[in-house]
Write a structure and sequence with these properties.
The complex is a heterodimer of chains A (327) and B (266). Chain A has 327 residues and is an alpha/beta fold. The longest helix of chain A has 18 residues. Chain B has 12 helices and no strands. The chains are: A alpha/beta (327), B mainly alpha (266).
Amino acid sequence: MSDVVVNVNGLAKTFQVKQKAAGLRGSVRSLWRQNTREVTAVSDISFALQKGEMLAFIGPNGAGKSTTIKMLTGILYPSAGQASVLGFTPWKDRRKLGYHIGSVFGQKPQLWYHLPPEDTFRLFARIYELDMAEFQKRRDFLVESFQIADLLQTPVRKLSLGQRMKCEIAASLLHRPRIIFLDEPTIGLDVVAKQQIREAIRYLNEQEQTTIFLTSHDAGDIESLCKRVVIINHGRLIYDNSTSALKRQYLRRKIIDVRFAEPLTEPFALPCVETLKQGTHGLKLEFDGRDVPVETVVQQVMATKPTQDITIADPPLEEIIREIYKK
Amino acid sequence: MMKRIQAELSFLRALIGVNLASAMEYRASFISQIVGMFINNGIYFVFWIIFFNQFGTVRGYNMDEIFLLFAIVTLGYGLGFMFAGNTRQYMAYLVAQGRLDYYLVFPRNLLLHVIFSKMIVSTVGDVAFGLIAYSFTGRFTLVEMGLFLLTAVFAAIIFVGYSVITGSLAFYMGNAQYASQQVTNAMLTFSLYPNSLFSGASRMMLYTVIPAAFVGAVPVDIVRYHDGRLLLLLAGTAVLIWLLALALFYYGLRRYESGSAINVNV
């Protein structure tokens, strides 16, 4: 039987935004005549999320991702539509829902800045009314999972961004939330910190079936964590399918990188194949698999000169997402 | 119901503890703020000492009443904002900048969580000043001391409630930080003057729009005359102010628009 955790139906949010002509004259005029414009942040979106699913909810800046998360966590009232999270209507049952969800906003820390993470952990135990013995066990488990034992007594202001973010996510999991909303959790982190955080999230999902609702501009987060992608742009849902389907659908272009044993004497040319780069021993080509088969290109390349090395690659996911955003 | 209240109190205790620990992270700043406020109050007070030495009595107030007025106002102000410091311009700022998100995701009473999330350290100096000022009033019967403490607590409740009202204006006005700060400062300033100095419209204002009389003059009269009816009036006013505060805050919350600013919780 399916276990729906999030069910969104026709959800929409509009804001009234003040409009003013540029400069002092515009400011003076707006003192007695204020013009406002209705801006649609989210428009009629619908989707559902099952227990234990890891969903990437992505889109360019201003697409409506954060507004959607804010409606699903009870921060904002929607202008229209319905949403249910764990059976609660977020903006009506904000407090009840709060016991069962976790949230990490990459740019809005929850840890107290001047205090060590341990102090915030203890405050969270009171906020979520946790039994202290149970809290201690849970805390130890998360400290182990996120490898943060040596960070707990250091004031947050002294932690690196990666260390802080690991503590942020651990704090948001103290009350065993059934779903966690991660809004750009790896923003600004180095590759090692990103990898550690991804591994910890994946581990939590496997161990506890925690549903993950992730927004990120990092294609690495999406590829390594999420089996499903929902793309939102201009407030509208434009894609909802598996990450692999996204790749299949958009990965028609291929990139071939060749290293020759002998120097190239003439420019390489093949119809429907774009030469991205040509050096004395190297060649980089890009083409659409529908126009010319991969085998044909490889055969032509190998016929040119003896080859030392050849790689055939898909364009990075980031590029695919960029293509979708442009539409 | 009892369990709910216990959970809320346990949370508030923990929140105040974290606030205090955060404030004490910087020892020099912590101590200088307290001492600074104590001196600040003292300077204001010296003005009245010089004044009464010159004129003796001002419309029913002599130096003893001024001691009592200062004691109640500073203790009430200190008790209120020592723990419930995220009011006034701070609350207006949180609302206008869309920074209530942090509080909204937690399963706690929103208003309590917001206002108790900031401690104004300098108010410890106000509390100390209030208690010392009272020791100069010469009113040491149990009834007088009891009434003094009770009215100071009511003053604290009114100060904080009124600050929630002024802070909540940001839901309706947008950037209401300056207005909120000015109005609350006006309440504090007017409360430190003998009430009898005012008459007509200005006196009416101190009982309504800027209810300074209820944190200064009315408590002083309750302690001076042991007036039970005035005490009831004070309690009723506190309830009314809080009802208005709750209505303005929670109705305004529906207009809250969040924001994209980067937050830091200190």
